[in-house]
Amino acid sequence: MDTYQKPLENVDAALNRLNATLASYKISSTTKSAITATKSPAPPPVSANGSRANGHTHSSSASQCVPASKHFQQSNGHSQSTQRPHEPTPPGGEVNGASARLSDELPRPDLLWQEALNLRFCDRSNQRTMMQGPAFPRMPGDQIAIDRQIDDIMMLQEHYLVDYPYLLPIRLLTSQKYLQLGYPDLAAGEAYKALLLCDAVRDTSDEYHPMAAPQLRDFIRQLPRTERIRQLACDPKCVTELPPGSPAELMDFELDIWVRYHYLPWAHRLLAVGLMYCGCYKTAWYKAWQGMTSIDKTAGDVNDQWLVDVTVGCEQAVRKLWGMTDDEWKDQGHSNNGKAYPDLGCVRREVYPWNEWEPDRLDELPALNMMMAEVAPKLEVRAVELPALTGNGESATVMQLGVFARENIAPGEVVLSETSMLTANNKLRDTLCDACSVDLPELNSPEAGQVCECPECQAVFCSETCLSRADATYHRATCGNDLDTLLRDVPPAEAADSLYSLLLMRAIAMADVQECHPLDLSEVRYIWGDFHNLPITPAHFTALNLTHETLTDSDRFDEGHGKLPRTLPWSFEHNIRLPIQMLEKMEIDPFAEPNYDLWVFNTLFAKFRGTASARLSGQAGSGRRARGPEVSAVHPMWCLANHSCDPNVRWEWGGSIEFTAREERVLWKGSEGEGGAPERKEGGIRKGEEVLNHYCDVELDVHGRREWARGALGGECRCERCVWEAGQEGVDGKGQ
Ligand SMILES: C[S@@+](CC[C@H](N)C(=O)[O-])C[C@H]1O[C@@H](n2cnc3c(N)ncnc32)[C@H](O)[C@@H]1O
Question: Residue ranges under compositional bias (Low complexity) (predicted)?
């Protein structure tokens, strides 16, 4: 008997069964209701005037169901002009063979859904599998195209990802759109979530399987029947493994094909490319390699050129970074091995066009001053013009906020005293208060009696006050959730990053317990994250083109960020993997809770990086050995004071942070000689004077100070003292 006879009979039988099954589907109405049945909760209720229950003004209303963007002009100068007043019709029903054809006549939400339906990765015609990926549309270089992409992202974020949070193709489409708009970091985040969903769809024991599989099933049912049969018929496994049984089993077999050939490879690509563009070369290299292996295993003997290109692109970038010759590179064993590659990159630091949480701080000065009055009755917040330190020229200035004296303040007077629950410490077994991070008193000291424990998880607090404040503000989200070991006792080189991530973890817990958006926490809301403030214009996007040439030329990786400035340190570990792990440990669903999207975390990190104070956990006087910056906190009023290397306050942080007016100002270097410096100023602060903090050790020389404060200032310090001292040394004092 012909050896192929039996398998062919199997295929015929299988296809007959499949046809019968497909024919039995009642397409439109049942599919719609099936999808609705798996829906997540609707977006937060929005009142007629657009304000949410928490007081935040939202520019669109759920009843209007239109992208919010057309209603507002962003503070970053990006205006969104396109109007598409269509309801996003709930997707449902087979697309009648039209999924390959996008019609501009369709309303945009439907077009978006169509785009998701059209996502294919392999060309599986002629019984052969070829990796090609969806055609990656280039951004046409006009403002309307950019606005449309932004609107699409908002539509996806506000509607589709809320209604179908576990739907793989929607995650992938979102990732693709982020990449096109120059946010490879956000693209990598969505691609990683898509990879998790690929596992969830295929693994019945996965926690998200009961949501991810039905949502994908309903989606696949909307594809044209002919297309579904073609995909099945091309699969070699169809011959041997197509289950004889029920429509449900057949459907799962079909899902597996779509995941293996289309969604999984696309997710690998988007993740690897996104990470490479961000400069996370080690993880990008590893994910590309992992992707190649996985695609080969799941989709047959195929090779993905994009992923190969990513390994080459990473290698090229790192060699350039390290300035190595071919021989040095090989000798040191870096060929085909990304283990030692750098893994910390930088991404755009901005108020995202869809971020509606950033307040107009000048408008809200009265609210800010009410908060200030509680911690510093003699101080007030005002607008102030500061030199722009980002290299835009000597005379450029920016309007920001600063803190000023409302009345005369005597030398030595404590003028601000603020406590915060937004604290972190990165030592696992250290004797610090869990809430305010103060060093706990020695066991046999008189104060030891005030120390208390959480009865559930044994977290330790310096006092009943801290315990009850913790309970009201964050502790319930972390209590007993096995978060203690995360990010603790890390090597010194990772200490700062671990502290920022621990602050993020605390902010998530605070938002969860206080039931508010993390960006609306009072500790966070008014912090300026040193965002770049440049408009997003077509000039940035003409070149993004993902080809072999661009993916392997590290000089062009900037194009992946729309050539906009990148000043926010970023890594896969701290910005994607760990935040998702934290959410899961706090029992917050990382897919279904839009408040905890990865762009929200980037925004929080931007705010923390310029404003968090750090100190040694072994403080002078505590009797403990100091070991490096192990404790960090964000004090929202304290951090509104600007920097000077001739400060008029000193600060100290124990359980609370304090500003004390200096008795004596610092002596400028060189002022003792002839042609001395302007006269040394008196201690204390006069009414109307700005409160000047210091972000670096003011005893250092001008070079040391500038080096130290650069990170917190976003450029070289150009305070009066620095300019004068640099001038004395004949160094350019403009700080550029
Ligand atoms: C901790 S915040 C200070 C408050 C800030 N001005 C605001 O509006 O929120 C630090 C940021 O203020 C700005 N800044 C503070 N001191 C400055 C100085 N001496 N010169 C220029 N910019 C300064 C920088 O943008 C820096 O990143």
Answer: 31-40
Residue 540 Cα distances to 179, 271, 533, angstroms:
13, 22, 14
Please tell me the distance from the alpha carbon of residue 314 to that of residue 554, in angstroms, as a whole number. 8
46, 47, 67: which is closest to 353 by C-alpha? 67
Residues above pLDDT 90, as percent of the chain = 47
> How many angstroms separate the alpha carbon of residue 641 from the centre of ligand 1?
7
How far is it, in rounded angstroms, from Cα 693 to Cα 459?
33
H-run or E-run covering 415: strand 414-418
Residues 77/82/83/89 CA torsion (nearest 10 deg): -110
Report whether 213 contacts 255 (CB < 8 A). yes
**Ligand 1 pocket test: which of 390, 403, 611, 643 has the largest number of ligand atoms within 8 Å of its C-beta?**
643
| The pLDDT of residue 471 | 94
* Run of H or E including 379: strand 379-387
Give the percent of the chain with pLDDT over 70. Answer: 74
Query: Mean pLDDT over residues 519-524, rounded?
Result: 97
Buried b / exposed e along 582-606 (16+ C-beta atoms within 10 A): bbeebebebbbbbbbbbbbbbbbbb
What is the overall mean pLDDT for the chain? Answer: 80
pLDDT at 711: 77
Ligand 1 center to residue 38 CA distance, Å?
48
Determine the length of the chain.
736
The predicted pLDDT at position 21 comes to 56
Q: Could you tell me which residue, 518 or 325, shows the higher pLDDT?
A: 518
Distance from Cα 635 to the centre of ligand 1, integer Å:
15
Atom 19 (ligand 1): residue with closest C-alpha?
643
Distance 409 CA to ligand 1 centre (A): 22
pLDDT at residue 88 in the model: 34
Q: Is 73 helix (H, G, I), strand (E, B) or coil?
A: strand
For residues 604 and 519, the answer to whether their CB atoms sit within 8 Å is: yes
C-alpha of residue 528 to centroid of ligand 1, in Å: 9
Higher pLDDT, 110 or 609: 609
Burial of 41 (0-12, 13-18, 19+ CB in 10 A): exposed
Q: Has residue 71 got a pLDDT over 50? A: no
Q: How far apart are CA 308 and CA 287, in angstroms?
A: 11
Tokens at 304, concatenated? 């993905």
Instruction: Supply the angle between the helices 209-220 and 184-202 in degrees, to the nearest 10.
Output: 100
Name the residue of 362, 379, 386, 640 to mutate for ligand 1: max ligand atoms within 8 A of Cβ: 386
Q: Cα–Cα distance between 349 and 347 in angstroms, integer? A: 6
Q: What is the DSSP annotation of 80-109?
A: ---------PPP-S--TT-TT---TTS-HH
The conformation of residue 416, written as its DSSP 8-state character, comes to E
Q: Please count the other Cβ atoms lying within 10 Å of the Cβ belonging to residue 29.
A: 10
C-alpha span between 356 and 359 (Å, rounded)? 8
The pLDDT of 299-328, averaged and rounded, is 87
**Higher pLDDT residue, 332 or 701?**
701
Place of tokens 């104060």: 447
Q: In degrees, to the nearest 5, what angle opens at C-alpha 45 toward C-alphas 40 and 47?
A: 160
Q: pTM for the complete prediction?
A: 0.84
Ligand 1 atom 11 nearest Cα:
713
Nearest CA to ligand 1 atom 22: 386
Rounded alpha-carbon distances, angstroms, from residue 614 to 531, 605, 611, 652:
22, 15, 10, 11
Give residue 402 CA to ligand 1 midpoint distance, Å: 8
**Residue 231 pLDDT:** 82
Sign of the dihedral defined by the CA atoms of residues 653, 658, 664, 666, in that order: positive
- Write out the two tokens for 281: 């070369």
Return d(Cα 456, Cα 472) in angstroms, integer.
Answer: 15
